[in-house]
Amino acid sequence: MEVNLRIFRYNPEAGRNKPSYDNYTLEADPTDRVLDLLELVKSYHDGTLSFRRSCAHGVCGSDAMRINGRNYLACKVLVQDVGNNITVEPILGMQIIKDMIVDMEPFFESYRSISPFLVNDEIPEDGKERLQTIEQRERFDDTTKCILCAACTTSCPSFWSNDEFVGPATIVNAHRFIFDSRDTAPEKRLDILNEESGAWKCRTAFNCTQACPREIHVTQAIAEVKNALTTGRLD
Amino acid sequence: MTSLVDSFRTTMRGYLTYRGREGHLAFLLHRLTGLGTLLFLIIHIVDTSFVYFAPHLYAETIELYRSTPFMIGEIFLVFSVIYHGVNGVRIAVVDMWLPHKWTLTAQKNWTRWAVLITIVLWLPAAFIMFRSMLVHNFGFGG
Fold first, then answer.
1. How many CB atoms lie within 10 A of CB A22?
2. CB-based contact (8 Å) between A163 and chain B?
């Protein structure tokens, strides 16, 4: 099938100071991924095209971008799912460095702010392991799946209007530890999420849940954090 | 931290071009109806203040409310108030008591129900207001 690919371009170092679009007509199979098309353009048409990719199998979370106006991982969306006319743009709300590459540092700074690691200085009862029941592990299972691709955060209207908002991804990763029975610092994370730029900025637009390539129930996780903030209960 | 202008641009680009589904559209309509209601409240506070600050303008202002464009606007105002309330209740109920209902299928249905309830509640009021406009402004029936 023939695909019309429209790619966002911005490269100040090469004199492309203003955002513009390049158009390509390519031969593709319906089961090709959008990432394959970008690789094709980079290899055979324009080597200056820049985008992040690493594993190319939906695990590393490098290639989140807006495809036909919606956030996806380019390696997980097939041509047959988005049609013959495809527009590829960088994710919204981040500083664009070059083409599809955005500055992810503020995103990771926000992520680091909630201490995304197990906090527990106590010695386990048996001196070896901190055991959990199946139910205790199940409580935060969904939010362990996050790959930090930023598809959720950059689809969020609250983040578009205020980049100080910690964003859905940070709240999801806080949720992963707040509800972990082995962790001893949920209050510290809840305090951060109770601030003005925390969980209360969520307006439940639901774009995050729809954008998540790992199908995490992002809005539900945020609602559970809000409930923990109001009730103080972590069960 | 980006500038206010950049944030505004990004916000507008997102609002207008991001292809969200029911939740995104419900959010946009919620914001639009909220701003519409706020605009009316501001106008209403200003016209009521004329009673004290400029009594001679008050009668003219009330006359303005009876004009056709204002009466049509009021029909949409009723829609705005009802939708903003119903959708707000949907969000509050799910967020506070039923977070496990924040799923793709459930929210698609909840959003559709919110719009349906809004229309059912709005139509009788819209009918009465529209008829009143036809009677008073165009001499129908009466």
1. 15
2. yes
Q: Single out the residue of A51, A4, A49, A46 nearest to residue A23, CA to CA.
A: A4
Q: Which domains does chain B have, with CATH numbers?
A: 21-138 (1.20.1300.10)
Instruction: Enumerate residues 6+ apart whose C-beta is below 8 A from A24.
Output: A4, A5, A7, A41, A45
DSSP letter for A126, please: T
Q: What is the ipTM of this complex?
A: 0.90
User: Could you tell me if A217 and A142 are in contact, meaning their C-beta atoms sit under 8 angstroms apart?
Assistant: yes
Beta strand segments in chain B, E: none
Residues B34-65 have pLDDT tens digits of 999 999 999 999 999 999 998 888 888 888 88
Among B1, B20, B103, whose Cβ lies nearest the Cβ of A205? Answer: B20
State the number of CA atoms in the 13 A half-sphere of B56 facing the CB. Answer: 0
> CB within 8 A of A110, min separation 6: which ones?
A166, A167, A169, A170
Say which CATH topology domain A2-101 has: Ubiquitin-like (UB roll) (3.10.20)
Threshold 0.80, pTM exceeds = yes
CB pair distance less than 8 Å for B20 and A209: no
Residues of chain B contacting A, Cβ within 8 Å? 1-2, 7-8, 10-11, 13-15, 17-24, 26-27, 91, 94-96, 99-100, 102-104, 107
Write phi, then psi, for A33 (nearest 5 degrees): -95, 160
- What's the pLDDT band for A14 if we cut at 50, 70, 90? confident
Q: Select from B2, B20, B95 the Cβ nearest to the Cβ of A223.
A: B95
- Phi first, then psi, for residue A203 (nearest 5°) are -110, 15
| pLDDT, tens digit, 9 for 90 and up, residues A98-111 | 999 999 999 999 99
Instruction: Provide the b/e sequence for B34-56 (b: ≥16 CB within 10 Å).
Output: bebbeebeeeeeebeebeeeeee
Alpha-carbon gap, residue A142 to A150, rounded angstroms? 17
Which CATH superfamily, name and number, covers A104-231?
Alpha-helical ferredoxin (1.10.1060.10)
